[in-house]
Design brief:
This protein is α+β, with helices and mostly antiparallel strands. The chain has 2 helices and 5 strands; from the N terminus they run ββββαβα. It has one domain: Gcn5-related N-acetyltransferase (GNAT) (Aminopeptidase, 3-Layer(aba) Sandwich), CATH 3.40.630. 25% of the residues lie in helices and 34% in strands.
Length: 97
């Protein structure tokens, strides 16, 4: 299965979809100047355990980095992902841990 992560700015969320355009998960956020505040991440329960959430968060964080912004990981899943992947810690406004 091929997936695609898209920033759906008008809904303030990143979505991960499959080949058919089915939404498999979302990472919701709020924007402040220069900061993306991740508030909630959810993956379709049928897709859990297949790396969908990790792919979603990784690509969302890469998009934030490419835009020259930083993050505030209020969402526990995003916070845990950053803790497990130190290469993203420099994006955190208030460092995790």
């Amino acid at each position: 299965m091929t997936t695609r992560v898209t920033d759906v700015a008008d809904q303030q969320r990143f979505e991960i979809t499959d080949d058919e355009g089915t939404v498999l998960g979302v990472a919701e956020y709020e924007r402040r100047p220069g900061v993306v505040v991740f508030t909630h991440t959810e993956v379709d329960p049928r897709q859990e355990g297949h790396g969908i959430g990790s792919t979603l968060v990784r690509e969302a964080l890469d998009a934030v980095r490419a835009a020259g912004e930083r993050i505030e990981p209020r969402c526990p899943f995003v916070r845990a992902y950053v803790e497990e992947h130190p290469e993203y810690r420099d994006l955190v406004v208030d460092p995790v841990g």
